[in-house]
Amino acid sequence: MDLKNIKSVKGMPDLLPNKLTKRTSEDKIKQADKLPDIYAWQFLEKKLKKIAEVYGYEEIRTPVLEQIELFKRSIGNETDIVSKEMFVIDRGEQTFAMRPEGTASCVRACLEHGLIRNSQVQQLWYLSPMFRAEEPQLGRYRQFHQFGIEAFNLTGPDIDAMQIAMLARLFKELNLIDKIRLEINSLGDLNDRKQYKVKLIEYFEQNYDLLDSESKIRLKTNPLRILDSKNPKLKELINNAPKLIENLGLDAKQHFEGLKNILTELNIKFSVNSKIVRGLDYYNRTVYEWVTDDLGAQSAVAAGGRYDALVEQLGGQSTPAVGFALGLERVLLLMGEINKPKVDVYFICLNNIAKITAIKISEEIKNKLDLNLHVHLSGGNLKKQLKKASSADASLAFILGEEELEKSYITVKYLKEDKPQINLLFAEVIKFLGEYCG
Ligand code: HAM
User: How far, in Å, is the centroid of ligand 1 from the Cα of 302?
Assistant: First the structure.
């Protein structure tokens, strides 16, 4: 292959500074819908880390590759994710998969390191790339980023509500609360679902001829997923199907009522959507999605719920668990661009000695003050360097030329204010900047 033709992989965009973020040419996404530049990512990531800390969650980092069996056993063999979307690496004796989500990896790591033994409460967060071979479109990528949290050994519904409150706070802080809404549902307990499944199969079998070919397969493999179908021809049939929410056992019902009460007390608006079944098999009781109408078919911005049976299913003790994951790309598409961090001082160096002096002075400033200082090292005349300072959006230009070096001062030019330039002695720089940037 001609080296010039080596491009990034379809659905895995590069994220760049300065309005340069490019999609791969194969991605069928309009340029206008492109992801924001790296500054918005940095801003959001900082906010996510802060909110995780404020709510008492600790970071966990797990490898990108896991044994494929982990995802088969947790997410479920019949789900779209496992049956057709995983990036699989076959190494002969062992087969690995690039993680399509974080919950399974988190549980695996907790079990491996004894983090949730003996009912120990554990609250963890992660912010990592995930991989799913879906057809790329607006808001849907093959490498995407999730911020996730998982809490173990708390039975809720208080913890369920608190995790939802955490997202509500985040969306408010990001000014997105008007663009998204919360939809909740309960999938009941295992037994509730078993009994419901019988009813649902009976209903769909009675209406077998109305099902499409995909739903006919799902009727055998995972009948609840028929409720997730996007086929408009099935809408009425699905609307009239028996609802799990109306067939909950007493415990699951009380849990759901408890959750609704706490959300109401917290003033968090929600609606009950009995069609939320989620695309992963491990859920029980509470499930929810924060959805938007602004991203076409990719409506879920964040989603989660309880998975009280998963730890045991993966070989641990019975451990209640609940969590969510937020898709950074979808949040960023709703947020739009963020300005890059401002530059406080741009050093203009008019000869080689000036460059060394500027580096020395800027190092001394950095020892004392937390400022953004850029030193211009690539030469050019005063006009060219001043232009660079303006395009970096700097507040001050510190000019160092022959005369300045001789008399040990800096010519300070105010780039954002209408003030005359001044001469500032080297010895007074820190005092001046301390007061100016205060
Ligand atoms: P999920 O619904 O599969 O749940 O994914 C969570 C979020 O990740 C979605 O709401 C969406 O924002 C984002 N996402 C998923 N797929 C893509 C994609 N192809 N491109 C861009 N964004 C995407 C989970 O992954 C569960 N592990 C959540 C969870 C954590 N439940 C309990 N704990």
Answer: 7
Is 73 close to ligand 1, i.e. is its CB under 6 Å away?
no
Question: Measured in Å, how far apart are the chain's first and last C-alpha atoms?
Answer: 56
Q: Which helix (H) or strand (E) holds 413?
A: strand 409-414
- In this structure, the chain runs to a length of 438
Atom of ligand 1 nearest to the CA of 331: 12
Closest atom, ligand 1, to C-alpha of 148: 30
Tell me how crowded residue 152 is: count the other CB atoms within 10 A of its CB.
23
CA of 327 to the centre of ligand 1 (A): 6
For 308-373, give the DSSP string: TTHHHHTTS----EEEEEEEHHHHHHHH---PPPPEEEEEEESSHHHHHHHHHHHHHHHHH----E
What is the tens place of the pLDDT at every residue in 76-118?
998 899 999 999 999 999 999 999 999 999 999 999 999 999 9
Backbone angles phi, psi at 144, to 5 degrees: -135, 175
- Is residue 389 in contact with ligand 1, taking CB distance under 6 Å? no
Beta carbon of 401 within 6 Å of any ligand 1 atom: no
**Strand-pair partners of 97:** 66, 88
For residue 275, the 8-state DSSP code is: T
Parallel/antiparallel/unpaired status of strands 343-349 and 65-67 = unpaired
Mean local confidence (pLDDT), 8-31: 69
Q: Give per-residue pLDDT as tens, 25-37.
A: 555 555 445 899 9
Supply the residue whose CA is at minimum distance from atom 29 of ligand 1.
324
> Who wins on pLDDT, 33 or 163?
163
Residue 325 Cβ < 6 Å to ligand 1: yes
208 contacts 216 by C-beta, under 8 angstroms: yes
Q: Which of 146, 141, 135, 129 is nearest to 13 (CA)?
A: 141
Q: Could you tell me if 77 and 46 are in contact, meaning their C-beta atoms sit under 8 angstroms apart?
A: no
Q: Provide DSSP, 285-301.
A: EEEEEEEESTTTT--EE
Instruction: Please give the model's pTM, rounded to 2 decimal places.
Output: 0.91
